[in-house]
Amino acid sequence: MFTTSRGISIVLAFAISALTLAFLSLLDEATTTILLVAGVLSFALSFILTNITLEFLIFREISKIYMVLDKIQKKDLSLVGKKRQKPSISPLKNLNSTINSYALAKDKEIETLQENATFRKEFIADISHELKTPIFAASGYIHTLLDGAVEDEAVRYKFLERAAKSLNALDNLVGDLLTLNRMENRVVKFHLETFDLKDLILEVIEQLENKAEKRDVTVRFYFDKAKKYHITADKDKIFRVCQNLISNAIKYNNEGGEVNVDLKAEKKKVHLSVKDNGKGIPEEDVKRIFERFYRVDKSRSREGGGTGLGLAIAKHILEGHNSKIKVESVLGKGSTFSFSLPEAKS
């Protein structure tokens, strides 16, 4: 009886009614009728007010708190914090709201930690795999030479060249990892200068001309010859971004495909897009292509070289210029990568 709001209310109402009657009985004017009416009224009002107070401000909120704690213990946060609670005069209701917020915050924190743990596992597995390839290749060639092949001059030079190529790939991988790590920790300095983005892209295309010819890929560059495309940025880093985007468009295109590089200047911004007509990227992979070592086609992961860090580095470079890289892709039709940078002030 004394564990419910109604039982406690009855006891308190009797106590208040008794005190009221005891006080009124001291008055000479108090008649039996007055005492009876006063006793009934004081009992009824005390019961109603006490019951409402206990039920709505205490017992019901305590019940909700127990329910929330039980759900937290069972790791079921499906209903926790769904409804946004307004400030209340009840401290228990405010406590319930605080517990809800705390539970949701902890749940998000746990999710983040789990995601980070998964990312670390994947990263360690990926980097181990990426490092093993050039190390084992170089080691295999060198051990073959040590086992006697060094006496054959033709084989010796051939294997030494292959070993050197593998070690160069390893050096590039380590260099890209260090660059990406510095960018993520924001310790890379950007050396800004004003230059014409059109001239930079022409230089990139010229550098990749042999690569395009080997795959029979045609690279077309569209721009307005009468316009200037001046931007203020880190020239070397923007060169690396453009080089990566155009190189990927050639590498992952179909044999005999096309790459369209489109440069526009409008609304005080310079827009660059690189479009290919290759296989495209599956929708579930689009959001992950900027992760370290993430490759869409695992079977062709090392075709044409590359460290698997190019897009991740490009993303951080553009973020350092207060820009974002965008990607649109249709499976079987190709992909378009684009970004924008502010025009240089004249």
Plain-language structure description:
It comes from Anditalea andensis. It holds the Pfam family HATPase_c. This is histidine kinase. With 346 residues, the protein is an alpha+beta fold. Among the domains are: 108-185, Signal transduction histidine kinase, dimerisation/phosphotransfer (DHp) domain (Helix Hairpins); 192-342, Histidine kinase-like ATPase, C-terminal domain (Heat Shock Protein 90, 2-Layer Sandwich). The chain is built from nine helices and seven strands, in the order ααααβααββαββααββ. The protein has helices at residues 5-24, 32-73, 91-146, 153-184, 197-207, 209-214, 235-251, 283-286, 310-320; strands at 192-196, 218-222, 230-234, 258-266, 269-276, 326-330, 334-342. Strands 2-4-5-7-6 form a five-stranded mixed beta sheet. The radius of gyration is 37 Å and the shape is elongated. Residues 299-303 have low confidence and may be disordered.
